[in-house]
Amino acid sequence: MHAYRSHTCADLTAANVGENVRLSGWVHRVRDHGGILFIDLRDHYGTTQVLCDPDSPVFAEVEKVRSEWCIRIDGNVKARDPELVNPKLPTGEVEVFVRDIEVLGSAKELPLMVFGDQEYPEETRLRYRYLDLRREKMQTNMKLRSDVVASMRKRMWDKGFREFQTPIITASSPEGARDFLVPSRLHPGKFYALPQAPQQFKQLLMVSGFDKYFQIAPCFRDEDPRADRSPTDFYQLDMEMSFVTQQDVFDTISPVIGGVFEEFGGGRKVDAPADWPQITYADAALKYGSDKPDLRNPIEMQVVSEHFAGSGFAIFAKLLEQDGTEIRAIPAPTGGSRKFCDRMNAFAQKEGLPGMGYIFWRDQGDGMEAAGPLAKNIGPERTEAIRQQLGLGVGDAAFFLGGKPKSFESVAGRARNVIGEELGLTDKDRFAFAWIVDFPIYEKDEETGEIDFEHNPFSMPQGGLEALESDPLSVKGFQYDLACNGYELVSGAIRNHRPEIMFKAFEIAGYGKDEVEKRFGGMVNAFQYGAPPHGGCAAGVDRIVMLLADEDNLRDVMLFPMNQRAEDLMMGAPSEPTSDQLMELSLRVIPQE
C-alpha cells in the first residue's frame, strides 16, 4: 500500500465496503458521540467520515487529535446505516473504522477556524492565508480560477493563437500607473521596471511577423488598492493580431469570453456575443454615467434641459445659463414614494452633492398627480412633458442632476445603480456585456487649458493623420473596452503603427519627437521597418473569476494577495534591505522626516 493513501477523501463509495484503505488529510472536525469518535477527514478532493471506538487499537491516539491536524489513517470501509446516509457528500454512504493512525503534522491553537462560515478580519485572513485557503469557499474559488485559465488557453489555441512569454524585467514605460522599479547591480544608478503590461513587446511581436499572440500575463502596477483592483500585480489574458480591424478583434475575443462565462457561470444567462451592443463612450456617459455600465439595470438617463430652461426652478434655470451645462434625469420606475425619494436624496448628500431634485407621480383617485418640490416649481405643463419624455406613469419617479456633465456623471451613474438595486430592476441572474467604443484620445485641462491624452496614447486615431489636423477634442480613437455587470473586463485598441501619425499624436499632447523617441525608442524604431496594421486587447483574469465566483473582492480569488496597504503580512513584504544588499546595488535609503 502507498505510504500515505490508497484513495483520496472523495473516492470511497458503497462499492468499497469491506476494503482496507489508507487515507491522509486534515481533521475538519471531531465529534464525540458517547465514547464513539467521529472525524470528518478532509483533503483537496473531498471529505470522508472516519470513526473510532474503544475497540480500536489506536483509540487513545485518536482521542488526542484536534482540528486541522494532518493525519494518516488505515481502516475498514463500512456502510452507514440507511438513516445515517449523507446525500450531500459523494462519500456519504460509507465511513471508515480506524485501525491505525499516524500524526503527520499537529496544529497549534488556530487563529481562524477552517470549519464553518465564521467571518474574520481581512488582516487575519491574509496573515494566515494558508489556513484561509483551506476553507471550502476558497478552495472552490481557486479551483475555479485554475479551470478558467485552462479554458482560456484552450480557446485561444483553438482559434489559431500561439502562446509566447514576454520579459518580466524591462525598461520603465508610462502606461497610466506607477512602475515598480528594480535597481541594477551591474549598472549602478540605473533601474529596470516590472512591466505594467506586455503592451510594447506584443506590438513588437507583430512587427516580428508573428500573426497571432496570446499570453496569460502577469502585470505589475504600483496602484492604490480597491476592491476590484490589486495594488501590486494582476493577471490578464493578453492578445494581439496583425492585419485586423476593430471588428475582427471583437469577433475573435467575444466567443472566448462569452464561452468562459457560459462554461463557469453556474447557469446564469449569458447573451450571445453577436448580441453584445456596441455603445459609444459619449452615449455610455450620458445614459449610464459610466464607461463600464451595468446593463442588467434597464434604466437609461436622459437630457431634460429644455424643460428647466427659464422655469420657476431657479437653481436649474440659472445653471443652464452657463456654457456647457445640462440637466439629466434618472427614471425610477416603481420608485414613486416620498420615502424612497428622500432616501435617494440622502444618498446624493453622502456623495457630496447638496441633494437630488425629484418628481414622483401618484394616483389621486380622479387622476394622476405629480408630487415633490420640483413639480411645484416648474408647473404641471413642464412636469407632464418630462413624464412623457421619460415614459413614466403612476407609481414612478425621476431624479435630476445638473451642471457640467463631468462634474456629476459619476454620481449619477452610482445613483442609477442604487435605484436599480433598491427597486429590484437589476437582473441578478445574468451577465450583461457591452463593447464601449469611440473613446476620445484627448482631453483639456479645465484649469490650464492644456491638451493631454485622455486614454491610451498608442491607439490609432479614427481618420488617421488627417483627423489630427482638426480639433483635438473631437478626435476619437480605435479604442474599446468590454464591460460586464458594471466592471471593465477587457481593454484594447487598434494600434497606431505609423511613426508619422504617432509623432503628430504626441506633439498635440505636448510631447516632442525627441521625448517620444527617448520613451518609446524601441517601438518607434521598429515601426520604421515595415510594421503591419495590428490590434488586440487584454482581459482581466482576476476580475473575470471574481464575477464568476460571485465575489465582491479580488482578494477572494487570488492565492496570496497583498492587503489594502500593499503589504504581504504573511511573508513580511515589503521589508528593509540589509546594508550589504544596499552597498551591492550602490543605493542609500534616506530616512523619512
UniProtKB/TrEMBL annotation:
Keywords: Aminoacyl-tRNA synthetase, ATP-binding, Cytoplasm, Ligase, Nucleotide-binding, Protein biosynthesis. It is found in: Cytoplasm. One of its GO terms (biological process) is aspartyl-tRNA aminoacylation. Residues 199-202 are annotated as: Aspartate. ATP binds at residues 221-223, 488, 540-543. Its EC number is 6.1.1.23. It comes from Pseudooceanicola nitratireducens. GO terms for molecular function: aspartate-tRNA ligase activity; aspartate-tRNA(Asn) ligase activity; ATP binding; nucleic acid binding. Coiled coil: none annotated. The keyword Aminoacyl-tRNA synthetase applies. It catalyses: tRNA(Asx) + L-aspartate + ATP = L-aspartyl-tRNA(Asx) + AMP + diphosphate. This is Aspartate--tRNA(Asp/Asn) ligase. PROSITE patterns: AA_TRNA_LIGASE_II.
